[in-house]
Design goal:
The protein is 74% helix and 0% strand. By secondary structure, the protein is an all-alpha fold. Helix 1 packs across helix 2 and helix 7 (162-169) packs across helix 8 (173-191).
């Protein structure tokens, strides 16, 4: 594809109409886009700076805006409005999007920080509670039959699968499932929890 040559009437760009320049830029005319850039870069940056207030972010958003103008110049339709209005609309939309993005990020960070700070951690109380819970479970396990206790211990404490428990105990898989089911029911009743 051959580069688009500037139109002869656009050679003297200083007096050229911005709508015409943007239309030419939409056809790939880099010189026309340079002229568009020279005319709109300062107003775009100024408007974005008023919205964002942060100079570094304003520069970044202005660069993104002008890149979008270059990439989407072919979509510019002079019948729907002027080039300045089209470019400034893109700039304003980009600036507002950045404000919303920054606000949402700040709110997420604030929620995460407040959630982390809102839950006081009492390690001693947690250790005592864990110890008491382990004692209750141990007491309830002692209330099971030896066969149930052995099956549950292998499955839940040793990490065996049901077929592995059956193999280790030398019994049928269905027998192991029944022992574990009955044992878990008794544990549930003993601990007073509902599953």
């Amino acid at each position: 594809m051959e580069p688009v040559q500037p139109a002869p009437h656009a050679a003297g760009r200083d007096g050229a109409d911005l709508d015409e320049l943007l239309t030419l830029a939409g056809r790939g005319d880099q010189a026309a886009f340079e002229a568009v850039y020279d005319r709109v870069a300062a107003p775009v940056f100024g408007m974005i700076r008023r919205v964002l207030r942060d100079p570094a972010q304003s520069e970044e958003v202005a660069q993104e805006t002008l890149l979008e103008v270059w990439r989407s110049a072919a979509r510019f339709d002079p019948a729907r409005g002027s080039a300045v209005t089209w470019v400034m609309t893109i700039a304003h939309r980009r600036a507002v999007d950045r404000v919303r993005s920054e606000t949402a990020a700040a709110e997420r960070e604030a929620r995460a920080a407040s959630a982390a700070a809102a839950v006081p951690v009492d390690e001693v109380a947690e250790a005592v509670e864990s110890s008491l819970e382990a004692e209750r479970v141990s007491r309830c396990l002692d209330g099971l039959t030896e066969l149930q206790r052995e099956s549950i211990t292998l499955a839940y404490y040793a990490g065996y699968t049901y077929p592995q428990v059956a193999s280790a105990l030398g019994v049928a898989l269905g027998t192991v499932k029944t022992r574990i089911r009955d044992g878990l029911k008794r544990l549930r009743d003993c601990l007073g929890v509902s599953w």
